[in-house]
Amino acid sequence: MVQLADPVAQGKPGIPPRVGERLRPASAQDEATAPDDLDASFGRLANECPNLIGTLAGTFAAEGRSHAIPSFTFRGPGDGFAQRRIGFFALLHGDEPAGSTALLRWLELLAAEPALAAGYDLVCYPVCNPTGYARRSRHNHAGLDLNREFWRGSEQAEVQILEGELRKQQFDGVIALHADDTSDGLYGYAHGRVFNENLLRPALRASERVLPCNRRAVIDGFTACEGVITECFPGVLAPPPDQQPRPFEIIFETPALMPLDKQAEAAQIALHAMLSAHRGFIAHAQHL
Ligand SMILES: [Zn+2]
Fold first, then answer.
1. Could you give the number of structural domains in the chain?
2. How far is the CA of 127 from the centre of ligand 1 (A)?
3. Ligand 1 midpoint to CA 254 (Å)
4. Does 1 fall in a domain?
5. What's 116's domain CATH number?
6. How far does residue 219's CA lie from ligand 1's centre (Å)?
7. C-alpha 92 to ligand 1 mean position (Å)
8. What is the 96 CA–ligand 1 centroid distance (Å)?
9. Which domain, by its residues, includes 144?
10. 3-class SS at 121?
11. In a 3-state reduction of DSSP, which class is residue 179?
């Protein structure tokens, strides 16, 4: 059960934001949303761009105040096929801001050129772990690694909010953005499915013009090939286990010790490459 914040406990007047409420302008969002100005930047972009809709996926109370997990949906123009919906998740580990920065830059690009997202609703969750992000820690306020908590009955509010979104949205694909301080290059998890690999490989090839790809035989304790890992830790953020047909799912990792700017640029290129590859497969399937 997700706890909604108690405005009295916050010591502030007013009613806390509810699930689905449109995110307020950056100037007014001081009580429950932004631990920093990163999601304020998303809010500003949503206010400027008619294609981008900002809401709160959910709120929860922790450490005597209210926290929110925002969501921003970019609605691309139609392309003649059924609109596909992809979920993008960043800052599940609060000390990995590159993925969120990449999403912001990508959305800025799409705001200027919406046709790049034709056929897609891109649902972005730029701050999945707001209490971790506030203290720049991997773990949340309870000291837990949220990326080991999914689909195993977690009591963590962040996980319950995000699991609810994953059920409600029924994404066609899920992309999680992370950064690894033990890797000197880009890599990703394809979860043992060829389709995922077919999206991840072109993303790695495109993004390695900015940062090198990690070509070690073992990455993060798993066997890897050309930066692609097919296994994964249990409990990572993923589509609902019973969702059919299975959405694609990818974890894209940037090397956390490299400059943030380069990580964000590489991840942004990867996002665009994955969308292009997916569009190619959809178009091909329609013509079979
Ligand atoms: Zn991570």
1. 1
2. 12
3. 9
4. no
5. 3.40.630.10
6. 14
7. 7
8. 6
9. 7-286
10. strand
11. strand
Q: Give me the numbers of helices (H) and strands (E) for the chain, helices first please.
A: 7, 10
Count CB atoms within 10 A of the CB of residue 133: 27
Which pLDDT tens digit goes with each residue over 152-173? 999 999 999 999 999 999 999 9
Quick one: pLDDT at residue 282?
84
Query: Is 221 part of a structural domain of the chain?
Result: yes
Q: Give, rounded to a whole angstrom, the gap between the first and last alpha carbons of the chain.
A: 45
Distance, in Å, from the CA atom of 151 to the CA atom of 127, rounded to the nearest integer, reads 20
CA of 173 to the centre of ligand 1 (A): 19
- The answer to whether position 222 is within a domain reads yes
pLDDT along the chain (288 residues), means of 10: 34 34 36 58 95 97 95 95 95 96 97 97 97 95 98 98 98 98 96 93 97 96 94 94 96 97 97 96 78
Distance 98 CA to ligand 1 centre (A): 10
Q: What is the pTM of this model?
A: 0.87
d(CA 115, ligand 1 centre) in Å: 31
Distance 237 CA to ligand 1 centre (A): 11
The pLDDT tens digits for 21-37 are: 333 333 333 333 334 57
- Coil, helix or strand for 187? strand
Cα(250) to centroid of ligand 1, in Å?
A: 13
Q: Could you tell me if residue 2 is inside a domain?
A: no
Q: How far is the CA of 168 from the centre of ligand 1 (A)?
A: 24
Q: How many other C-beta atoms can be found within 10 angstroms of the C-beta atom of residue 21?
A: 14
